[in-house]
């Protein structure tokens, strides 16, 4: 008799759960599938090991028997055996735009992740904002815009790893939620990211532009709006797992060290032949990364954004590290205004989650010229330099080739200890001899008349004699020159010491 007391309510509970699982209904689910996109429930099943929903009954009753669920789904989950919080937009219900319940559910997910100190994964598919102009008649009023719970969104940048995925057209507040993260991911041809979509742009700006041209993966990744681009939703989920694998559960923990099958003492003779003797010739810096770090462990972030600057997550003998480098095939590896911003944000990520930094240095200096000056390169560059000097994590710099000027000085925080070694190809100074000679000897060369070319060659030869990195090492202005083949053993020995002195705890760096 007692077992049946609450039978009607339990039956109603089960009925409502089943209604919620229908999401926006068969027609809208079919429409979602027709665009090549999974539903939010399919996404959560594909992404996680398992998950438990919170707030499944949230929504609106529609008549005596109908129910429209909230268009955000949140829950606790495990991913790769780790506890996380998930929050996903349901595009089948009002295109993922906000309703009366979405604010509280999103805020709860943010607060739960931050206060329980576990990573947060956002699956974004829609605007996530306040809805359309059509709703104003229903409301009978308008409102002053605000972003509910944005304090939690910002706070989580300094508390827990946040991975955000764009899995459809993402605009407005949805786009802001995407980029206010540590790693953002989108899917080629399937997702677009913009402040406002094509229709709003045409109405407001008179510009007719397609959604791919406006916010497709090519434009978005080149702008640095997203860090990673996947070929499919399944690949996006795999990138999510991989990105999280380098990061701790929270700022109060250290990054997870995993067993490595790659020999920490592995020397690679190929490294000795990568940098050409001709200083004007570029080479493949990413090949150096592949040879130095654990095999298959390099995950580059933002490859199409500010491409002369390379930022990546990697492992050394199973220890996660943050990797900075330059690509000499783009502007010679010089630092641009955007490259400086990329550097500052990445160093902040390393600082927040206690990732020791490895900097493979080939920095000819800031990119110069009128375009660079109009971009405010030195102001952005000074911000990158500040981020480097504000960092407290262990730092290792390998001077691969050039180290010039103020940008070159950003290769490490010089006011504290850091491992620094150089390859015999090292070349450094305030200015490269090739560019600085004519400025330094301008008057002398002008007075030489027809003999100017001969005099310039003589001066260059004298300067070349003092250019040798061995001269710098003799004065202990660089600590050690090493055989490039032995770079990995040097770094794997350093990384063990680096992890021994890491101190967990939140930092003040919370910039997106």
From TrEMBL:
Highest taxon of source: Bacteria
Name of the molecule in the record: Propionyl-CoA carboxylase subunit beta
Classification via InterPro entries: AccD/PCCB, AcCoA_carboxyl_beta, ClpP/crotonase-like_dom_sf, COA_CT_C, COA_CT_N
Pfam families: Carboxyl_trans (PF01039)
Any GO MF annotation of the entry: propionyl-CoA carboxylase activity
Entry-linked PROSITE patterns: COA_CT_CTER (PS50989), COA_CT_NTER (PS50980)
Taxonomic lineage from the root: Bacteria, Bacillati, Actinomycetota, Actinomycetes, Streptosporangiales
PANTHER family: PROPIONYL-COA CARBOXYLASE BETA CHAIN (PTHR43842), PROPIONYL-COA CARBOXYLASE BETA CHAIN, MITOCHONDRIAL (PTHR43842:SF2)
Domain CoA carboxyltransferase N-terminal: 6-259
Coiled-coil annotated spans: none
Domain CoA carboxyltransferase C-terminal: 266-512
